[in-house]
Write a structure and sequence with these properties.
The chain is built from eleven helices and two strands; from the N terminus they run ααααββααααααα. The protein has 244 residues and is mainly alpha-helical.
């Protein structure tokens, strides 16, 4: 019998405190451990972000990002103005977490990186053949924001994500966009893909500029090649950080 129905204090007590400097991935793992334990009934409202953050000893942004990724995967339901609710029973959630690699190791991370690379390259190829002038303008605007935000890495990352989102929409394949969104979310939870210094940001900017030039020229082959180069650099950065 689930023990924590509508009892947020017991839910937070079951989580325990995480080590200082814990990444979003560890927050997600701790939440998943609890969600798949069978202790919480489906439909249970989880404690507020601030309570979860205080219990785990992490910032609210880490909890928010972990919950956002878990919502995309169908684990929780975030209802604005109401709260965050567990969607399914342990027996329903566990196969889903296994299917999407949430109990992830290095091998699975590598496979997700390969999958994301293939999807992004195909998106770039499609977008180069389908980009209308308004989409090209949106991509250019995102690129300009990246250029302007080289000294503000958080803003740079937001502009980077915006560029990829616009590119995916430009491809005009909703199923492809949905799959890419799930893969990106998993990688966000389990691997830090962000740039951490201005030099790396400049490298990423140059790679995005190459993709944009190919899109603007309506050259699918060049767009795919430019995106392949960008994905190779991103994967190498993840591998280097994992090894460190």
């Amino acid at each position: 019998m689930p023990a924590y129905r509508d009892n947020p204090d017991e839910i937070t007590a079951a989580l325990g405190t995480l080590p200082a400097g814990t990444a979003v991935s560890e927050v997600a793992r701790r939440l998943l451990d609890l969600f798949t334990s069978g202790s919480i009934e489906p439909g249970t409202r989880l404690p507020p972000e601030r309570q979860l953050a205080a219990t785990l000893g992490v910032g609210r942004s880490a909890v928010r990002e972990a919950l956002a990724a878990l919502e995309i995967l169908g684990i929780v339901d975030v209802r604005p103005g109401s709260g965050t609710y567990l969607r399914g029973t342990a027996s329903e959630l566990l196969p889903q977490t296994l299917r999407w690699g949430l109990l992830i190791g290095q091998k699975s991370t590598d496979e997700l990186l390969e999958l994301r690379s293939g999807l992004e390259i195909y998106v770039a190829r499609l977008a180069a053949g389908r980009a209308e002038p308004n989409r090209v303008a949106q991509l250019k605007a995102s690129l300009e924001r990246m250029r302007a935000d080289l000294g503000d890495l958080k803003a740079f990352v937001r502009a980077d994500m915006e560029f990829h989102d616009v590119l995916a929409s430009t491809a005009g394949n909703d199923t492809l966009v949905d799959l890419l969104s799930v893969v990106r979310s998993l990688l966000h939870v389990y691997a830090d893909r962000r740039v951490h210094d201005e030099e790396k940001a400049r490298e990423a900017l140059a790679e995005h500029e190459a993709v944009f030039a190919a899109i603007e020229a309506a050259d699918p082959d060049a767009a795919a090649n430019a995106m392949a180069a960008h994905m190779a650099t991103a994967a190498a950065r993840v591998a280097a950080e994992a090894a460190g």
